[in-house]
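Fold this sequence, please.
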Amino acid sequence: MTATEERPDYKYVGTRPIRHDGLDKVIGKARYAADLVLPGMLHGHILRSPHAHAKIVSIDTSAAEAMPGVKSVVTGADFPDLGAAPNGDLAKNVIARDKVLYEGHAVAAVAAGTRREAMDAANAIVVNYEVLGHSLTIDQTMSPDAEILHDGLITRGIEPAPTEASNIVARTCFERGDIDQAFAESDVIVEREFSTTPIHQGYIEPHACVADTGQDGKTVVWCSSQGHFRVRSATADVLGWDTSRVKVIPAEIGGGFGGKTTIYLEPLAVEMSARSGRPVKIVMTRDEVFRATGPTPGSKLKLKVGAKNDGTITGVKAWMAYENGAFPGNAAMLGCMTVVSPYTMEHMYLEGFDVVLNKPVNAAYRAPSAPMAAFAMDTLLDEVAENIGMDPIEIRLHNCPSEGDPAPYGPKWPTIGLKECLEAIRDSDHYKSPVPENAGRGIASGFWFNIGEASSATVNLNENGTATVVTGSPDIGGSRASMALMAAEELGLDVYSITPVVGDTEVVGFTDVTEGSRATFATGMAVVEACRDLKMQLRQRASTAWDCDVEEVEWVDGHAVHSPGDHEALSLAAITAAAKRTGGPLGATASLNARGAGPAFSTHVVDIAVDKETGQTQVLRYTTAQDAGTAIHPSYVEGQMQGGVVQGIGWALNEEYIHDADGRMENSSFLDYRIPVASDLPMIETIIVEVPNPSHPYGVRGVGEVGIVPPLAAIANAVHDATGLRMSDLPMSPPRILAALGEAVE
């Protein structure tokens, strides 16, 4: 279902062609990093720390080096110490140096003829550890007597600056108005404390790479990644190499959701390939993925919301702490940016803290930090609405920001579609239908700012009138099809006459990572710019053929048309067929730093049934409305919306990292780490709202992030509606709900 403003009558944009790479993926022909086999290839395996925090006293690799099939063994001593350089922490995360900071931290790596030989050799490495105290929670790591992870870590954002190291990375603060005045003017005030645990992105394909380093000192890397240009630069940095020595070829990617925006394996494979003179493949096990790659941060949040009896939010005070894992990050800043963004208010005081602790380094998971913030904010807003007897949609519409209002993090809102999302849910069949018996209904909204960044694209016209579109954005959610659709619309070609290609780091210009909902927006902008360059070239070729001014030539539906009407129209195929005789091949490249990424908003409604005897929950119905700006390929927009909901349902109800007292993860498999499967879910209804982003030629605003933001709060509000319980700790698993029901009875 689509709710739209009036828009141009596009021929291709907004249609639903079968994706160009679909057949290969359906029949198993698509090649992922783990599928690659090269002559003489070795297999790598990584030895990982069994401790959450320990000094490495010594490492003895002699036994491993003498074992059958072993061709290379590396430790942290074989890599340069980058110190405080930009990728210094990344290098220490790829392989530990003087100490390990979490269970699963890489300590050494082995390359051998078979995986079994590599595993046996890795297990023969003798590491002498001095075990240190560790912190597994925000409260523990912020305690004054906590073991310090990094001796030189001085908290940023505090004045005057501290003189002693701590585990608090940074403080972020956004402030407006007078928060004390806000609460003094409030008719109702609600406040609660919330917590969430780390959860994993749960991509089906584990991390994998193959590196082939030649005698010329250059290497070729094949890997599963959301951004092969970042893999190139980060790998070169960790190795101490010049970037020109690294070529990265993007394999197909079996899911990422933000978790494949960094590197874990590539420098190890490259170094062992250089030492052995043979290609090296490393493929993580699922256990390694859980223990050693980035989950989303755990969090602890304290929010206080004031409002008047007419529903006006007077002010919000927030204290938010986010886990960064073992090395510093910026999760709290993102939480501060997003926590109150779906609402407008005169007063706010938002304070966020980033902390390090002895867990794997966090990575993005769709809209990083925003779901936790929305969980707290929208749960409390639901409570405000209940206290004053106001409809949960109406209180959100009453406080909805509009174009020109100030965003919490500084700028004024451009054109946004939150009001339209709220109205779409309000007017939906779902919201108008009665709440099922013995169930509850919940509402929540979410925000993500989206990003632009650098993208490049090359569009080449072939002699038969077809086109090839080469970009540097790995295709995760159907971006090949989106690029082809925009090129088709510009050039007037059938979408299947266009071949979209993801080029390697030596084929296409620099392109930032596929993250932040930027690919269709920013890379699409580059494709459109290149196509418009090509249209000018095509008009010039026609003007030469007709001996007229180029201003007399228009490009209409794939043809050069002489506006005075003195010449018969020339098709694109006719122009390209004669290209050798009229100036040579036709092609265009565009590289840009995209500006004006349209902010994304979404509103969700969900019906939940709760078994009060077992605590089990069942999602009965779910509807999501999201502003896509313009849906280039509506099927893939719907897929992104539905995917975010599914992952949010898992986050809200089941998923969590479970560690024992020694910091060892106890549920590092999909048997024990519970993600939703099809039988857990209803059909997820989608409403695509289209409020075009004026900064994009087709009105695009990214859709991949914001869909995961509202589910946590929406489900918590539905559980409250069904049971009367205000659940403030995630996940809302059956044992937690059952315990809360028991406490309510007492």
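The domain at 452-594 is CATH 3.30.365.10 (Aldehyde Oxidoreductase; domain 4). The mean pLDDT is 97.
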